[in-house]
Amino acid sequence: MRVGELSRRSGVSVASIKYYLREGLLPAGERTGPNQAAYGDDHLRRLRMIRALIDVGGLSVVATRDVLAAVDDPELPLFVALGRASGTTTAPEPSTDQDEAWEAAERALAAEVDARGWQVSDQNPAWATAVGVLATYARLGDEDLAGQLGLYMTTMEEVAEQEVAAVVDRGDRARTVEGVVVGTVLGDTLLGAVRRLAQQHQSLKLLGETPTHPRG
Amino acid sequence: MRVGELSRRSGVSVASIKYYLREGLLPAGERTGPNQAAYGDDHLRRLRMIRALIDVGGLSVVATRDVLAAVDDPELPLFVALGRASGTTTAPEPSTDQDEAWEAAERALAAEVDARGWQVSDQNPAWATAVGVLATYARLGDEDLAGQLGLYMTTMEEVAEQEVAAVVDRGDRARTVEGVVVGTVLGDTLLGAVRRLAQQHQSLKLLGETPTHPRG
DNA sequence: CGTGATTAGATAGCGGCACTGTCCGAACAA
DNA sequence: TTGTTCGGACAGTGCCGCTATCTAATCACG
């Protein structure tokens, strides 16, 4: 398959494919001549993953490159790349404000983590993200929102247990890793959307109203 | 307070404040002369919220403007603006692919929603986002990931119940709405980070290892 | 075998976003 | 009075994610 067919089958323009090749998101095709290369089904699959991570997962091109590099490198711990990816998406800058609010937030999170016996590293980018959100709550005077943290941890503990269990032994190692990446990145999006729907449902339930535009 | 002090107290440059004023994120100060205006504590609070939504929540300036407009307008249904906001963050384009995968995904979601008796509108942007993720799973051949949907819905139903209950009757209506917005937008970020931490914890638990960089 | 489409690769350009810098004339602070 | 700050307008900047254009080589077809 040459680039034209790859473009037609993936729905991605040739120019964009060349761009992804340049940026290292897509491995080069197999050379068949000085200015000719052949692409396979794995290129097509990779291309679809790229579009999913960028369009649906909301990752930047650079974050996508890093995540995919971790997929390709069996040595690299996957959650590091995933943390980096989510960091890019949701916490553009945890800021260097190592101020009072930040330290109080970190203590609060550490207490909850210890209470549950979680084994987590504060090198995990998600740690700084969580602390940053908690600190922001405090700075905004919305400290009561931090009260949801325990609930979030309890529910995510169960969710993560199911997710990790579902992923162990999927057969092909490469495909497994791909599944983890897709499930993690797109799972954030799905979880957020489901939360929004649940909030609407619960709002209506609590206020005893019916939606303005019911489904169907 | 004039713009210089507002800048110093908020940590936002004067140029950026002027930019937010132009873009309608921040209401104009009270005029005290032909080229003089005074800002109050509510401007300072609004400015801090803007930075939180942009930096921590990852919203764009336009999305932030829309969300804040909904905060200011008691008529506008809040979840519409919030849906739009999250849509901007996580699902840049659900695409117009009303193809087979999309329709199958929509049927699957509708079935789950009906089974739980949720009252939700498919006008809610979160609906399209959720369907889009499900359809993407299918196109990538990761259909098994869709199996997590039920788990996500069950857990988010409980989370949303607590969140909605915590928000009802907070006293001041304007402050309540602000709390909802902050809790919803920043809550997405927090929930994602907690999920990442829980995944690390569960991975280590299942594989019986200890983190490379334990906290402390 | 010729002719037009396609290719790899390199480089330049574009449009959007989130600011940032500069200038003006007025006003405030010493 | 003199230096600083102000509001307002507008041009410019840097980054990002492509997109367009070019060249020389190769391919597909009659």
TrEMBL record, chains A, B:
InterPro entries: DNA-bd_dom_put_sf, MerR-type_HTH_dom, MerR_fam. It comes from the Bacteria. Gene3D superfamilies: 1.10.1660.10. The keyword DNA-binding applies. Residues 1-70 form the HTH merR-type domain. Keywords: DNA-binding. The keyword DNA-binding applies. PANTHER family: HTH-TYPE TRANSCRIPTIONAL REGULATOR ADHR, REDOX-CYCLING DRUG-SENSING TRANSCRIPTIONAL ACTIVATOR SOXR. This is MerR family transcriptional regulator.
